[in-house]
Specification:
alpha/beta; 8-stranded parallel beta sheet; 10 helices
């Protein structure tokens, strides 16, 4: 899909949905646990031949504020590489209800991890799906050091089925988060094993996963009501279908009001250590 058309469709759908449901949007608060800000004023690194289109902060806020998004986590994608300048510029504009999830090289000094933690970075992302991480040994070493130096938890973007041999080791980390419901139906049993060990699971990227999303949401929430954290995944780079506001309605229908409230708000604030007064 042409990316200009993709951005138009997402924005138009967001406005239409919020117009149809004004009361609900006015009362709903969402912590967006997974979004990307892609500002070409900062370094962008092509990944596997792909360079994402410009998607600056104002575009993101324009699409999500009508939906009730008032806090969230800005996540570094493969195309950000190890650049921290865009997070350093973006997080102060948003305030303390917003945090960062970054990528760093294995040899980053502990002092730099601590400095990034001071500006609101709360987690370290390991992008196995896009070929950015080759070794689980490296992941474990860096994740443990990042937690010690900056209290960062580890976020893993992978087909969860590929993590099956490593469940016991990953469960020993202080906290892990699995992106996009673990991506595949084959990965769901692994996701559930990790949830049983305390992992959090991002209810994100419904248009990029290959699984029965409602069933996955039900089974994860049944395993632990504290596990799911919702996110828009905007601007949905390389997804077969971009985020749609009806993804929010899907979560509400499947989980019901109490569990949806936890996925939209409570669980995200707790995971990212955001003050309860956020938003």
């Amino acid at each position: 899909m042409n990316m200009d058309r993709r951005r138009f469709l997402v924005g138009a759908t967001a406005l239409a949905t919020s117009a149809m449901l004004p009361a609900r949007a006015a009362t709903r608060r969402i912590f967006d646990s997974h979004c990307h800000i892609i500002d070409h004023a900062f370094p962008i690194v092509p990944n596997q031949g792909y360079t994402p289109p410009h998607f600056p902060l104002d575009d993101y806020l324009g699409q999500t504020r009508p939906l009730g998004v008032v806090a969230g986590a800005i996540v570094s994608g493969s195309f950000h590489g190890f650049d921290q300048s865009y997070l350093k510029a973006t997080l102060p504009k948003l305030g303390k209800s917003w945090v960062g999830v970054t990528q760093v090289p294995n040899d980053i000094p502990d002092a730099e991890i601590a400095q990034l933690a001071d500006i609101g970075v709360r987690a370290l992302r390991f992008n196995m799906f896009r070929g950015r991480i080759d070794s689980v040994d490296d992941l474990m070493t860096l994740a443990q050091r990042a937690h010690a130096a900056g209290r960062w938890h580890a976020e893993i973007y992978a087909d969860a089925a590929a993590l099956r041999p490593h469940v016991d080791r990953l469960a020993k980390l202080p906290q892990i988060v699995i992106d996009h419901l673990g991506m595949t139906e084959a990965g769901l049993p692994v996701v559930l094993d990790l949830v049983a060990a305390g992992a959090k699971i991002k209810a994100t990227g419904f248009g990029r996963v290959k699984m029965d999303v409602p069933k996955a949401l039900e089974r994860i929430a049944a395993k632990s009501p504290d596990a799911l954290v919702f996110g828009t995944d905007l601007p949905s780079t390389r997804a077969q279908r971009p985020f749609q506001p009806d993804d929010i309605a899907l979560v509400e229908r499947v989980l019901g009001p109490e569990l949806a409230q936890k996925a939209f708000w409570d669980n995200g604030l707790a995971l990212y250590r955001v003050p309860v007064t956020a938003g």
